[in-house]
Specification:
It contains 15 helices and 8 strands. The protein starts with 5 loop residues before the first strand and ends in a 14-residue tail after the last helix. About 55% of the residues are buried. The protein is an alpha/beta fold. The radius of gyration is 19 Å and the shape is globular. It has an 8-stranded parallel β-barrel with strand order 1-2-3-4-5-6-7-8, surrounded by 8 helices. The chain has helices spanning about 25-35, 55, 65-75, 90-100, 120-125, 145-155, 175-185, 200-210, 235-245, 250-260, 275-280, 290-300, 300-310, 320-325, 335-340, and strands spanning about 5-10, 40-45, 80-85, 105-110, 130-135, 160-165, 190-195, 215-220. It folds into 2 domains: about 5-265, TIM Barrel, CATH 3.20.20; about 275-345, no CATH class.
Length: about 350
């Protein structure tokens, strides 16, 4: 087990889903500086979908990518800042721009089935001297041995770390063990973990990832993030301290930052059955708009639709498939969808075809 682990705080990136991508440059400056002041070394900023997302129509953020980078650069002197990058949403020129504006790292996110798309982006980032994380979105969609073969590819492309991503928050502890062991059997790339909290396991799995050798774990203040949120930075730090693992983060200080800066943004109470079903079925929330549309047309329970969809495909949910599955569900729902389920909580449609 690692004696020291890096916390990558994604409050300002993944957390931006929870505020409809409306963190301002002032928010970015204040929150990023607060994270640096309490000892966080790696701060991810920008649009939740990553570089180029506003331009591509995935929800218009409150500022441009360049403005977010400039805001972070003006206040951070020690902590590294960087952005997320999905090939096809971002361009290679976006990588150039991020490097020119002081980004020290970039995270290249691809579906685990589409890893080859990351190669030119990793190469461009390494040309600029950036630290590169290969983030395998929906990691659970491939068996561990096939996942591990892709890990070897990412290492050959030049990635510095491979991030196991539990996009739907439904992986089990045994899954995580299998994926980490499979990678270690074929290559020595550093490993990270990004967990969502649909089944309430994000913190526990972040700690387990460290036990399994992860050198970087993702988290956000108060667990702010897409769908049911991420592992809470405050809890991850506390857990790691209990394990005797150093993070460099001041525990009370990071708790203060979360309570003062982020807690006022949280409005949810109780548990969402949509979140829980997404974790159970391993469904990516970016397809929720299609689920709402076709569940409404066919008068079926969106949770049942999600479960049936994931029996067919855990990576993609094209509209034709959603429509077909919804039409095939015989049991109808007699409750109004809009008042029963908070569909407005789900932002981003980066997985839908354009």
């Amino acid at each position: 087990m690692q004696q020291r682990v890096n916390i990558l705080d994604t409050t300002l990136r993944d957390g931006s889903y929870a505020v409809d991508f409306q963190f301002t440059t002032q928010d970015t400056a204040v929150i990023a500086k607060a994270l640096e002041d309490v000892g966080v070394d790696i701060v991810e900023i920008g649009h939740g979908v990553g570089l180029g997302a506003s331009r591509k129509g995935f929800g218009e953020a409150a500022a441009t990518d360049a403005e977010y980078l400039q805001a972070a650069g003006e206040v951070l002197s020690r902590a590294q800042y960087g952005m997320f990058c999905i090939p096809g949403v971002a361009t290679l020129e976006d990588v150039d721009m991020a490097a020119d504006l002081g980004a020290r790292f970039i995270r290249i996110g691809t579906n685990v089935t589409e890893v080859r798309a990351s190669e030119p982006f990793i190469a461009r980032a390494k040309r600029h001297g950036l630290f590169v994380s290969a983030n395998y979105m929906k990691s659970y969609a491939l068996p561990p041995e096939q996942f591990a073969r892709h890990a070897r590819e990412s290492q050959a492309y030049g990635a510095d770390v491979l991030c196991v991503v539990d996009s739907a928050g439904g992986m089990l502890a045994s899954d995580l063990v299998s994926y980490f062991k499979a990678v270690r059997a074929v290559c020595d790339i550093d490993l990270g973990f990004h967990g969502h909290n649909n089944l309430g396991l994000a913190v526990a799995h972040s700690l387990l990832a460290v036990e399994l050798g992860a050198t970087v774990v993702d988290s956000s203040l108060q667990g702010l993030g897409r769908s049911s949120g991420n592992a809470a930075t405050e809890l991850v730090v506390a857990g790691l301290m209990r394990m005797g693992v150093e993070t460099g983060v001041d525990l009370l200080g990071v708790m203060d930052a979360g309570e003062i800066l982020i807690k006022p943004l949280l409005h949810a109470s109780g548990l969402s059955s949509l979140d829980m079903v997404m974790g159970y079925a391993q469904f990516h929330s970016s397809y929720m708009g299609l689920v709402r549309q076709h569940a409404g047309r066919q008068r079926v329970d969106p949770r049942r639709l999600i479960i049936e969809l994931c029996k067919r495909d855990k990576v993609n949910a094209p509209e034709a498939l959603v429509k077909e599955v919804a039409a095939g569900i015989e049991k109808k729902m007699d409750q109004p969808l809009t008042s029963r389920f908070n569909f407005a909580a789900y932002h981003g449609n980066e997985q839908e075809e354009r």
